[in-house]
Amino acid sequence: MAGTPGSDWRDVFPAVTTQFFEDGQIDYDATGNHLNVLLESGISGLVMLGSLGENNSLTREEKLSIIKLAKDVSGGKIPVVSGVSELNTYTAVDYVKEADAAGADGFMLLPAMAFRADRAETLAHYRFVATATEKPFIIYNNPIAYQVDITPDMLLELAEIDQMVAVKESCGDVRRITDIFNIVGDRFTIFAGVDDLALECALLGATGWIAGIGLAFPKENQRLWDLAMAGEWEKARELYRWYTPLLHLDVGTKFVQNIKLAIQEVGLGKEHVRMPRLALSGQDREHAMKVIHTGLENRPS
Known about the structure:
- By secondary structure, this protein is of the alpha/beta class.
- It has a single domain, classed as Aldolase class I (TIM Barrel).
- Helix content is 45%, strand content 10%.
- Strands 1-8-7-6-5-4-3-2 form an eight-stranded parallel sheet.
- Strand 3, helix 3 and strand 4 form a beta-alpha-beta unit.
- Helix 6 crosses helix 7 and helix 11 packs across helix 12.
- The mean pLDDT is 97.
């Protein structure tokens, strides 16, 4: 794996939102401005068009335009990774080829969205999509959301594919991190994929974090990860205890709206989402606002 493209991916790769105007059209200026703020915080990569980027609500042309924007703003300083969330394997292959041509430095690959694939179908999907490019892939495991669990023994098979360099582990059970190391060793970089388990994942050996609420608190987010990677656990725990109520906003069916609302409240963007999503209202909004503003009131200096 030494020298394999993407094998050095680690640290914070935020899963960036796509900023919209109120009418649902993409606000490219706002998206670019937010990218600049994130770059200034010290991140090591960008994940565009993940779940937070509302991938499945965008057209193919819009997705490619977002990749080109991220490449322009980042200026080649850090890798730009595109989420791949398509209905079937063939459209995933087509998208990877087009995003590759548009400049994506790699891909975060989800299972096919058309139906709940079994083990053989999931492995076939990942193997086939990997033939579309020589660029690296992050394997995205989120069985809670997508009903497909990519288990450590499946990762052992996917380890045969050179371009598969990392795993975003979002199963919600941190015991999985140790299981992966015991079965696959250090073949993959492991990225924490659930915000309010990030420090636990780091303790168990994750060396990357595909972060969500850090979009609204990029400096604190980076500070927490740097402390963890330096083994300064006491300082990391102190910061994590302040941060955890905010990190909880990354969990649940309204996490996109939660995080976009936080981005708005700190002045880094707007909460607008694209239908069928709607902005938070009622108790959901009241709860999120309370968490956000309590966090801001107690924000560490």
